[in-house]
Amino acid sequence: MRNRFGLDKGHVQQVNVRSGWLQNARGAMRTGFPKARPGMRVGLLGGSFDPAHEGHAHITRQALRRFGLDRVWWLVSPGNPLKAHGPAPMAQRLAAAEAVMHHPRVVITDIESRIGTRHTAATLARLMALYPGVRFVWLMGADNLTGFHRWENWEWILDNVPVGILARPGQGVAAQRSRAAIAYARYRLRAAQARCLPMRHPPAWCFVNMPMVDLSSSDIRARGGW
Ligand SMILES: Nc1ncnc2c1ncn2[C@@H]1O[C@H](COP(=O)(O)OP(=O)(O)OP(=O)(O)O)[C@@H](O)[C@H]1O
Ligand SMILES: O=C(O)c1ccc[n+]([C@@H]2O[C@H](COP(=O)([O-])O)[C@@H](O)[C@H]2O)c1
Known about the structure:
The chain has helices spanning 54-66, 90-100, 111-115, 120-130, 142-146, 154-160, 172-176, 179-183, 217-222; strands spanning 12-16, 21-24, 27-30, 41-47, 71-76, 106-109, 135-141, 163-166, 188-189, 205-208. It has 226 residues and is an alpha/beta fold. The two termini are 34 Å apart. The site of nicotinate mononucleotide has 15 residues, from strand 4 and helix 4.
């Protein structure tokens, strides 16, 4: 099956991380893939962003600072595999995300649609193969830690990628008592060690508390603001 760039999925080999060119068996094609040099610390904030809001922008700025990241990529999801209703069209969500988040070190991308993944474990495996040497950190709000054990191959994610958790209003207790938090308790870094997270060999995860922003996409949708 070919994607919109005319590439067979199985033929994708490697992104030239300096130029953003995607290399496949038939040659190189220009794409909108984000650029990253080996050794860069890149936080990945996956989300439906349906729509993006100041809460996303806030945790992104916090993640850059607290985890010492060079970049954060917003992975605007083709659709959360656990949500029954699909989100608004990708173009609409990308445009809204770009209107909310202006930061020289933040990239907003539909790369999951481009590489044909939707489950996070599959996305991470592909990104690690496409960007060798880049130090990825999976970022998420505390609410997602609570249900993390329902994600496909969730243990693989924790075993292979450092995970940074950002506090979210009303979510701290449930998250810290979650199945994933308990199962991986011994791999948890103290908040004071947060800057070490990208360099740690996984499993490694860190929960950071910070001033919180009480906003959610579902509230915005419920108020008819989308
Ligand atoms: N206000 C917030 N504080 C902390 N984390 C947040 C906040 N809003 C979103 N996140 C995190 O950002 C990521 C993407 O979130 P998402 O796009 O689902 O937004 P949402 O507001 O949670 O949407 P919805 O209400 O539809 O579930 C998730 O990891 C989520 O936990
Ligand atoms: O891989 C999974 O099984 C999985 C299950 C639920 C959510 N996710 C990812 O978690 C991120 C946050 O999703 P959402 O809808 O809460 O914004 C997004 O990148 C989803 O693809 C992934």
